Amino acid sequence: MPGLIRDLEALLDPRRVFSQPEDLLAYMNDATHKRVMPAVVVQPVTSAEISRVLSYANTHRIPVVPRGAGTGLAGGATPGTESIVIDLKGLRQVIEVDKQNLTATVECGVVTQKFHTLVESMGLFYPPDPQSMLVCTMGGNVATRAGGPRGVKYGTTKDYVLGVKAVLPDGEIISYGGKSVKMSSGYDLARLLTGSEGTLGIISNVTVKLLTLPACRQTMVAVFAELEAAAEAVSAIIAAGAVPSSLELLTKSSLETIEAFMPLGLPKDAEAFLLIELDGHEEKVKEETQQIRAICQKKGVTETKIARDASEAERMWLARRVLFPATARRAPNILIEDATVNRTQVPAMVRAIKRIAELNHLVIGVSGHVGDGNLHPGILTDRSDPELMRRAEKAMGEIAKEALNLGGTLSGEHGIGYLKAPFLEWEFQSAGVNLMRRIKHAFDPNGIMNPGKIWVDGGETHV
User: Using N-to-C axis directions, what is the helix angle for 386-405 and 424-443, rounded to 10°?
Assistant: First the structure.
């Protein structure tokens, strides 16, 4: 497409327009397995440059795929064959941190971990903590409503967005919201764009609310011989009002995978391993730590351990952080679900996943943010084996359907992308999905924005 390349080089610095195969290889997929070569990649560094690219693409009916760091687990940043990938990492300025109003305004390419470090150095706190936060971006977090371990106490990204600047498909730039804590003017466009996965426009700036940094943090682990006992302990902890900032579950299969990858001395005979963090004022944290320990003892815990210092806490959390690379070592590809159910249904959901794994002759590891019912089954597969992929994709649909049968949702924090697009009508029925289609058409009548994502549509490419 030499004409397309020339036109884009006229709109941007030519050094930020990439069309050679060796450059495009890095953009063929996100953290999912399907690989598609885009037509071209551009790297704008301002909202105005995004506007020029979108206006051009809209005029010429060229599909556009926004991309942050490419860490998505639902395929939201997987391109189409004739698409323009807009790499947004160049918009990486922290525009303002307002300590008096407890807000910050950042560009979409700011790395989440770097933002955490900055605001914490100022005594402030931004709770959303996706597992990929070392590299993922604030814009990608907003586009997918990303969550993380701290969601049980603090909620997810959607709960912190106060305002956005966004570029619409025709190139028009809009702003909605800002520093005001309250706003009841018109439709909530910021909330609508949050979680839209690049299908309505491109979020270039976001204003988020901040909290003050908790004075104290405490990590502990609780080991259970039975999954049901661990789930009962989780429900009892929340009901008692001792809400941890993080409450993570590792099941037996996950523990075995981690130990094979990096021996950490994890209990090999445990059916459930809870990793718990509390934060707040020091005395309150001490009180709640003992309260949780007592609850776990009543529920039949086999072992509890409280971290003595930050170093020991870091080692405890290492088990959770290495799970993905440990699992990746066991198979060329992994399909990671994030079906979410209420806390009391976690044992039933885990049992269903085990049953689905056995029926489809698959290995599926289970972990998750059990404090808010968000499970992450990891299906081991290999895209070079069509029969194995067929069984893996079948199991993914069965896991999704089981979560819905238990009153849950398809996605707690990863979004829908293309991987779960075929299942969306199961959750919202045709009337709900058709309403979403009409909203998209109002924003994007030419259908250029991230086609094939969120739902399957005959007029869009399902990659």
Answer: 90
Q: What is the CA radius of gyration of the chain?
A: 22
Q: What digits encode the pLDDT tens for the residues 238-293? A: 999 999 999 999 999 899 999 999 999 999 889 999 999 999 999 999 999 999 99
Q: Which helix (H) or strand (E) holds 221?
A: strand 216-224
Residue 14 in tokens:
């030519």
Cα–Cα dist 370/352, whole Å: 16
Give yes or no for a contact between 89 and 243, defined as CB atoms under 8 angstroms apart.
no
| Interaxial angle between packed helices 346-359 and 386-405, expressed in degrees from 0 to 180 and rounded to the nearest 10 | 150
Give pLDDT tens digits for 137-164: 999 999 999 999 999 999 999 999 999 9
Question: 59-67 — which CB contacts under 8 Å span 24+ positions?
Answer: 60/4, 61/446, 61/448, 62/4, 62/448, 63/448, 63/450, 63/451, 63/461, 64/169, 64/448, 64/449, 64/450, 65/38, 65/198, 65/450, 66/139, 66/143, 66/198, 66/202, 66/449, 66/450, 67/27, 67/30
Question: Taking Cα atoms as reference points, which of 319, 128, 362, 308 lies closest to residue 223?
Answer: 319
Among 115, 23, 136, 26, CA closest to 71 = 136
Direct distance between the N- and C-terminal alpha carbons of the chain, in angstroms, rounded to an integer: 21
Structure tokens at 288: 């709640």
Sign of dihedral through CA atoms 126, 127, 133, 136? negative
190: its two tokens:
């910021």
Residue partners of 307: CB distance under 8 A and separation at least 6: 218, 219, 220, 313, 316
